[in-house]
Design the sequence.
């Protein structure tokens, strides 16, 4: 497999934007992941506790997976504007205001030009993918935890 085109493209990119260009979306990614996790994990635990209380025993791993899917989908929905801003920052033309990485400025620009629908662009596919991931990851985590304890 010839990797020359990829390495040439990478060197060209680094030549134009510097090493910082490779990490342009790092800060906005972290700023998206913190609130996402602050919503997803407590909601997952709350839903498991509620389900356990309703049925009178600890949830099974498949039930934990269902809770994880719901928690992940909800967290994805409420943090979609941050994900949209992150994507705009990462794809912005080098040297533009958006490429500077200011998340609040990116959100403001999206709000001014596209309104609420722009801030929530792609919410359904994002919720779907993250719900599936939450189902698999958190269900597997719970099953592994039960097997080890």
Sequence:
């Amino acid at each position: 497999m010839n990797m020359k085109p990829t390495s040439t493209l990478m060197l060209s990119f680094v030549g134009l934007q510097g090493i910082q260009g490779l990490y342009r979306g790092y800060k906005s990614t972290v700023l998206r992941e913190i609130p996402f996790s602050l919503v997803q994990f407590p909601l997952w635990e709350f839903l498991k506790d509620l389900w356990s209380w309703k049925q009178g025993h600890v949830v099974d791993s498949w039930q934990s997976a269902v809770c994880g899917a719901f928690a992940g989908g909800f967290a994805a929905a409420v943090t979609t504007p941050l994900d949209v801003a992150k994507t705009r920052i990462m794809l912005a033309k080098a040297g533009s205001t958006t490429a500077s990485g200011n998340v609040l400025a990116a959100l403001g620009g999206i709000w001014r030009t596209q309104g609420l629908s722009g801030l929530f662009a792609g919410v359904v596919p994002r919720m779907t993918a993250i719900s599936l991931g939450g189902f698999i990851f958190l269900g597997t985590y719970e099953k592994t935890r039960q097997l080890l304890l």
